[in-house]
Amino acid sequence: VQLVESGGGSVQSGGSLRLSCAVFGYTYSSYCMGWFRQAPGKDREGVATIESDGTTSTADSVKGRFTISQDNAKNTLYLQMNSLKPEDTAMYYCAGRYGSSCPRPVPALFGYWGQGTQVTVSS
């Protein structure tokens, strides 16, 4: 399984970005996919997850601003980020695991990771 993120960049506070994660080689119908982020000097944290049936979960820190979605025909995961704040600055990672439901977004529970894409928000 290979995950390839894209869409990061630099924006001003209040701006928007959409991250994409192309998934290659996953052949199971049940899965949990998620977006995580890691700022310098901080632990990696879960941002949002989505199950194969479309059920989503979003961290309180980004709820109402970030939306996770998927396009099964394109095998692609998305993270739409609106009203970005400087504290959203981090490396963003796409991750996945087998199974029909998502556990708590603990990084150690996800076995597949992308290389990350940097998001920088300036004030």
Structural write-up:
This protein has strands spanning 2-6, 9-12, 17-24, 31-38, 45-51, 56-58, 66-71, 76-81, 90-98, 112-113, 117-122. Helix content is 0%, strand content 52%. Strands 2, 4, 5, 6, 9, 10 and 11 form a seven-stranded mixed β-sheet that branches. A four-stranded antiparallel β-sheet has the order 1-3-8-7, with no helix packed on it. It has no helices and eleven strands. Strand 7 and strand 8 form a beta hairpin. 33% of the residues are buried. It has 123 residues and is mostly beta strands. The mean pLDDT is 95.
Please supply descriptive tags for the structure shown above.
0% helix; 52% strand; four-stranded antiparallel sheet; 123 residues; single chain; mainly beta; seven-stranded mixed sheet
SSE blueprint and pairings:
Layout: E1 2-6, E2 9-12, E3 17-24, E4 31-38, E5 45-51, E6 56-58, E7 66-71, E8 76-81, E9 90-98, E10 112-113, E11 117-122
Parallel strand pairs: 2-11
Antiparallel strand pairs: 1-3, 3-8, 4-5, 4-9, 5-6, 7-8, 9-10, 9-11
Compact overview of the structure:
By secondary structure, the protein is mainly beta. It contains no helices and 11 strands.
The total of beta strands comes to 11
Structural class: mainly beta
Radius of gyration equals 13 Å
Low-confidence spans: none
The DSSP helix count reads 0
Please describe the biggest sheet, giving its number of strands, its sense, and whether it closes into a barrel: 7 strands, mixed
Strand content: over 45%
